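Here we describe the complex-level prediction in full. Unlike the single-chain runs in Section 2.1, the four entities below were treated as one system.
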Amino acid sequence: MHEIRRQISQKVIAVEAGVSQATVSLVLAGRDVGSDQTRKQVLEAAKRLRYRPNLLVQGIQTGKTRMIGVMAPPYDFFWSEVLYGIHDVLTNADHVSINLWAAHRGPGPRQRNSPSGDELEQIHRLIDRRVDGVILWPAFASMFMAHIHEFSSRNLPVVTIDHELPAEFRADSVFSEDARGGRAVAAHLLALGHRNVGHLAGAAAATWAVRRRSAFEGAIAECPGATCFTVEADHGDDTTLAIKQARELLAMPDRPTAIFAASDLYAKQVYHAAAEQKIRIPQDLSLVGYSDDDFAAELFPPLTTVRQPAYDMGCKAAELVLARTKEVVRREPQNLKLPVELVVRGSTAPLNASRNTVSGNGTARNTPVLNGISRNDG
Amino acid sequence: MHEIRRQISQKVIAVEAGVSQATVSLVLAGRDVGSDQTRKQVLEAAKRLRYRPNLLVQGIQTGKTRMIGVMAPPYDFFWSEVLYGIHDVLTNADHVSINLWAAHRGPGPRQRNSPSGDELEQIHRLIDRRVDGVILWPAFASMFMAHIHEFSSRNLPVVTIDHELPAEFRADSVFSEDARGGRAVAAHLLALGHRNVGHLAGAAAATWAVRRRSAFEGAIAECPGATCFTVEADHGDDTTLAIKQARELLAMPDRPTAIFAASDLYAKQVYHAAAEQKIRIPQDLSLVGYSDDDFAAELFPPLTTVRQPAYDMGCKAAELVLARTKEVVRREPQNLKLPVELVVRGSTAPLNASRNTVSGNGTARNTPVLNGISRNDG
DNA sequence: TTGTAGGCGTTATCAC
DNA sequence: GTGATAACGCCTACAA
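The structure predicted for the assembly as a whole is:
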C-alpha cells in the first residue's frame, strides 16, 4: 500500500468530538443542527484540525462537481477578457473552471489549428473529471465538431462563444451583434464616400466571421455603385496570419479605398502591408478592424474598430452554463447577442481627402507608420 | 431524491458483459488480463456504452486527482505564454489545471491587487478539490502569503514563478536570470555612454523586481561617475500603471539620459510620458524594458528589452510540480533560473547622438512617436 | 482466471 | 437530536 496524502476526514472529527460521523456531516452542512453543545464541539474540532470538505466525494454523490470545462486559450486580448468574465462569474458561484484547449506543443508563434489528433483526449479529460458543463471557443467548436457529440450525448450543457453549433447539439451560444457591427462598418465607410471597398474575412467555418461578412457585403450591395471585394484570411500562425491576403488586397489593380478587416489582428497586418507599399492610412486607405483589442487604440493612426463587450460575453457564457446545471428539465437552447459599438478613430477618413494630412503637420510621412514594421532587431 | 446525471459505471458494464464489477475494473486497467473471451466482452461493452472512468473516484482512492491549481491570470503576453507552457506540459502528462486568481469583479481595466478579502476562499476552492499541487504567480504569492500556509501545511507542493517565498514554505521557484538581465541592461547603457540613468522599478515586495533593481543599481554603481535614480512604479490599474512615476523621472531637474523600466508595460508608459514632454526616443532618451512582450517590437521606435523564455518558464514550473507529486520523500526545494537575452532595438542609442536622426530622415519628429498617444477617440 | 468483500469520504435515509 | 447503515464508483486484497 503506497503512502497517500490523506487529509482530515469527518470520521476523525467524529472521534475527536465524541459523536458519530453522520452527526458531523449534519452539523457541518449547517442543517437541522443538534444541541448547541454537540455543534460547538464538532465545529471546534473541525477548525482545530483544519478540516476541509472533499468536493470529489460530494461530486460523486450529488452528481455536481462545481467544475466547468473551458476550452479557450488566452489567445489574445479579447479571449483573455472573456476568460476574466468566465472566471469571475464562476468564482462568485463557488465554481471553478478547468481550462483546456487544443494542444500546441512548443514555444514561439502559436498555431491556431491543433496539429495533433488528440482533441478527443482533451474532451475526455473533462468528461472523466465529471465537469458540470463546458464552454467552447469557436476554433475548438468548429474543428472538433465531430467530437462534441461526446458532450451532448452525455447530457452535458454546452455553451459556445462566437460560434453556432448545429441544432442537434442543443447548445447555447453567446455572440456579440456581429451583423449589426458589420452593417455599422459598412454605413461608416459609405458615409465617408467609399464605394470600392475590400473585406478581409475570417474563416468561412467560423460563425462570427460569416455573420460579419454577409452583413457587411449585404449593406455594401444595397448602396448603388458600391462594390466589395472579399478575401478570406488564412490561418497561419501569429506572425503570418492574414498578411498574404492583406498584401493581395492592396496589390489589386483597382485597389479598394477602404478595407474592413474581420478582426483587429487582421487589421494590424493591413497596417504592415500598407506600410510596405507606402500606402498611407487614412489618406490613401481607410481601415476598420473588429474587437477593439488592447492595441487598437495604440496603432498609428489609431484604429477605427467595433468594440465587443468581451468581459460581459464571458460572464454571460458562464451564467448560461450555470443555469443549465441547475435545470431539472432541459429548456430550449438560448442564443444571446450582446451589443457592439463602432469606435471611430483615426484610421478612417473621407474619400478624396488624400492631400489633407490629419494632424496639420505639413510633412507627408513616407516612413512606415506602423510601429514594428522594421522587423530587423539588432 | 433529485435527479442526477449518472453516467455508465463499471457495474453496468459488468452486468452487460456477464462478469463481476471487479473483473471489469481489472480488464479496463489493462492488468493481469483474464481470458480473451472475458476481456473482449468487457471491452466491447465498455465501448458500446461509451464508458468513461470516473477520475473523482480514482482521486479519492489514490490520493491523486491529476489536477494542478494554477493561480495566475492571463494578465499580459508574458503570463499568457507562461500559461501555454503550463498547459502543454500538464496536458502531456495527462493532467489538468484549475485556473484561479484574485477575484476582480467587473470589466474594464484590471486591478492588479485583489480588492476583496476572499483570497482564502480561492485557496480553499483548490484544496477542497484536492489538487495535487499549485503554481502561483508573484502577485498572488506575495499578497496572500499569510494564506499560503494552507497549502504547505497540507503538504501540497507549491511552485512560484518570478517570486521567492520564505524558506519555511519549502516551495520551488522558477525565475529567469533577473540579476543577469539587470546587469546586461546596465552594461548596455554604460557602453552607450550613459552615466545619468533612471530606473522605474517594480514593487519592492516582488522578488523579480528586487533582483532586477539591485543588479542594475549595483552594476551602475560600479562604474565611476555613473549614478542611478530609482523610483518605484505604483500598482494602479492597466491605464494608470506607472505613468505618474514615468512622468516624474522625466521631469527631474537633472533628467536621466537613459531609463531602465522593470517591465515592458512600464516602458510603454515612458513612451507616453516622453511624448507628452516632447522628449525624443532614442535621441533624447534611451529606454530599455523587460520581458519582450508582444508589443515591444512594434513600439516606435522598437523597444530594447530583455527577453525571458516565458513559455519555457511555464513548462518548468509544471514539470516541477509534477515531479513533486510523484515524490515519495520530500527533497530540497529547487530554484530554477532560465536564461535571458538582451534584445537591442531602436529605443537605445549612444549618448550625445541627439542631432543625428536614426533613419536618415532629416525631419525631426515632434509629433507623438508612440502610437496611441492621442487618446481622444471619436 | 474470476468473484467477494472492505474501504475511500461523504450524503441521505432510516431507526432510535 | 443522534447514530447506524446503505449508497456513490472504483480499487485492491484475498478467497475460490
